[in-house]
Automatic annotation (TrEMBL):
Residues 25-56, 62-81, 323-354, 382-425 are annotated as: Disordered. It comes from Rhodamnia argentea. Residues 135-477 form the Protein kinase domain. Residues 62-78, 330-344 have a biased composition (Basic and acidic residues). It comes from the Eukaryota. Residues 383-393, 400-425 have a biased composition (Polar residues). It holds the Pfam family Pkinase. This is Probable serine/threonine-protein kinase At1g09600 isoform X4. Keywords: ATP-binding, Kinase, Nucleotide-binding, Transferase. ATP binds at K164.
């Protein structure tokens, strides 16, 4: 039935190709019979013609059920069987197993019984069943363990075939599956020396299944029984070697075998079994097992399961001395789990470091975070600003007690008061904005205290949230998407915000990281274009940024060091601001100065 095809067939697209087939002898035969099926199906309600035809719809098939005659050779399906099959079709279509719903439905529509489609969908996939009435049963030619084999004529092709009728005990799904395995394998085999399975005979109302094979004139036992067959010398010699070791079969066995030419193999003198003597050096348990497995008469050899119960596998000496087994360090399931966990953490950390390195690269590529604490830059910047004394300087512009810090993007950065739920900027360092007014000598001491307290608060927040940042880092550091300015950092745990807490001096909050990380440098290139350009003290060189990896704050004394460093920087800034103020005659406000908390 190789002529019918298409995997992944959906209901309504189950095609039968009657032509254009590979014309092997068997496929020709089956192609012809398939065409008949096709015609029968079409006549039953399909209304199609031509080479490619569709199986009729389930509705059409349902109409067909009542019309069908018994599909077995000798019997009509009983009324109850018909009822059951119809019910099966109604209830089981498309509901069973792992086979795709559409295909299962298509199989039922194609005429397969539901007891088969339910558990053996793969075995029949792409085929349609042959009808029993397209064969003429001739005679029984063989009997297997679970089947009877008949010689039959395929009325479609007028060829002789072998029909193997499979017996199922009450459609037991296990038996059906077992048969399905054989069908699947047979369908895959395509070799001149292997009997070709050409198709299956059944119908939706049938409780039987026939396998259609090309007919073979011989089987091995039959060949061995013919007078003309001569075994080669080596074959006979082989037999005698076996008899010499295992003993020749008893007279009774020869008689029972009914092999007419047993004399060809039958040694003139019976051989005595010498297995035990030959392998006397083997452990007794091994010998005992060998003795069973090499029994001359098949029924005495036992089964694989009984062999496994043999003492050989449990008694001393065991198959090998345990001391000769390779030695490994002690390891329990629990240890292994811990090791896995460790490895996972290491991997996550490595990934995070990689990620942070990439973000560093990304930041560089997108030319963002133009912040600086560098002294030289800082000084130059202040001098530049002093020279320009831009009236649009934020501090100047806003003046008074209301301060409105300006981000590099020129947007108003309103320090936040509700920072308790916010995370300190862990990624790119914190931009600590200090206005010129704040650094005024008169207010410098108070400001220093305020900044110190701020740093302490921030440090504790950083510490508290460090884990969240670590977790979020990996997923956020996809640099490939982030070379542009419109990068979105979705994970709030990682998008650290610099919320300036100022005890009521100002309110609101501002997402610093957004501006610092994502504002493209091109926007700042021309100072004149940027409203806040003049108020930015300077830009930070890459080296001064903080790239946290793992816990944001190192344990123990490092925190103190960090805080000390912050204080030192603040003092430096204050000192410098004072110095500049004294040096210059310009008493205008100094614009916003940006610091990195641990900058140099
Ligand atoms: N295609 C065939 N053409 C001719 N004779 C066949 C064909 N297939 C099977 N037979 C005959 O039917 C007998 C039984 O075959 P069947 O395949 O049912 O049994 P088996 O394979 O010998 O045993 P089991 O059922 O345990 O697999 C064979 O020994 C053979 O004589």
């Amino acid at each position: 039935m190789g002529c019918i095809c298409s995997k992944g067939i959906l209901l309504g697209h189950y095609k039968i190709k009657g032509r254009g087939l590979k014309r092997s002898k068997s496929s020709k035969r089956f192609a012809a019979s398939s065409r008949r099926d096709e015609l029968a199906v079409t006549a039953d309600g399909g209304g199609h013609d031509g080479a490619d035809r569709l199986i009729p719809s389930p509705h059409e098939i349902e109409n067909e059920v009542g019309d069908r005659k018994g599909d077995d050779f000798n019997e009509k399906p009983s009324k109850s069987l018909q009822r059951r099959a119809t019910m099966d079709v109604q209830l089981k279509v498309g509901k069973v197993g792992s086979f795709p719903l559409g295909e299962k439905a298509a199989q039922v529509v194609a005429g397969w019984p539901s007891w088969l489609t339910a558990v053996a969908g793969e075995a029949i996939n792409g085929w349609v069943p042959r009808r029993a009435d397209s064969f003429e049963k001739l005679e029984k030619i063989g009997q297997g363990t679970y089947s009877s084999v008949y010689r039959a004529r395929d009325l479609e092709t007028n060829t002789i075939v072998a029909l193997k009728k499979v017996r199922f005990a009450n459609m037991d799904p296990e038996s059906v599956r077992f048969m399905a395995r054989e069908i699947i394998i047979l369908r895959k085999l395509d070799h001149p020396n292997v009997m070709k399975l050409e198709g299956l005979i059944t119908s939706r109302v049938s409780g039987s299944l026939y396998l259609v094979f090309e007919y073979m004139d011989h089987d091995l036992a039959g060949l061995a029984a013919t007078h003309r067959i001569k075994f080669t010398e080596s074959q006979v010699e082989q037999m005698h070697k076996i008899f010499k070791l295992c003993g020749s079969p008893s007279e009774e066995y020869w008689k029972k075998s009914k092999l007419p030419h047993a004399t060809i193999f039958k040694p003139q003198q019976p051989y005595k079994r010498c297995l035990l003597e030959t392998f006397k050096d083997f452990p007794s348990s091994a010998l005992a097992l060998l003795d069973v497995l090499l029994a001359v008469e098949p029924e005495c050899r036992g089964t694989a399961s009984s062999a496994l119960l043999n003492d050989f596998f449990t008694s001393n000496p065991l198959p090998c001395d345990p001391s000769s087994l390779p030695k490994y360090p002690s390891s329990k399931e629990f240890d292994a789990r811990l090791r896995d966990e460790e490895a996972r953490k290491r991997k996550a950390t490595a990934g995070k470091v990689r990620g942070l390195e990439s973000i560093k690269k990304c930041s560089k590529e997108s030319k963002v975070v133009p912040m600086s604490h560098d002294n030289a830059d800082f000084k130059a910047s202040i001098q530049e600003r002093q020279g320009q004394s831009n009236p649009r300087s934020t501090s100047e512009k806003l003046g008074g007690t209301t301060q409105n810090n300006v981000t590099p993007s020129g947007q108003s950065a309103e320090p936040s008061l509700n920072g308790s739920s916010q995370i300190g900027n862990a990624n790119e360092g914190e931009a600590l904005t200090v206005t010129g007014r704040e650094l005024d000598s008169s207010s410098g001491g108070a400001e220093l205290t305020r900044q110190r307290s701020f740093m302490h608060r921030r440090a504790s927040r950083l510490s508290r949230f460090s884990n969240s940042v670590a977790v979020g880092a990996d997923s956020l550091l996809d640099c490939s998407r982030e070379t542009g300015a419109n990068v979105e950092w979705r994970d709030e745990a990682f998008v650290a915000r610099c919320n300036y807490q100022d005890g009521g001096e100002s309110s609101g909050k501002h997402d610093w990281s957004h501006h610092l990380l994502h504002k493209p440098m091109s926007l700042f290139k021309k100072a004149g274009e940027h409203p806040g350009r003049e108020s930015i003290a300077s830009y930070s060189p890459k080296k001064s940024r903080i790239h946290y990896s793992g816990p944001l704050l190192p344990a123990g004394g490092n925190l103190d060091e960090m805080l000390k460093e912050h204080e030192r920087q603040i003092q430096n800034a204050v000192r410098k601001a004072r110095l500049d103020k004294v040096k210059t005659t310009n008493h205008g406000q100094v614009g916003a100065l940006f610091y990195w908390p641990n900058g140099r």
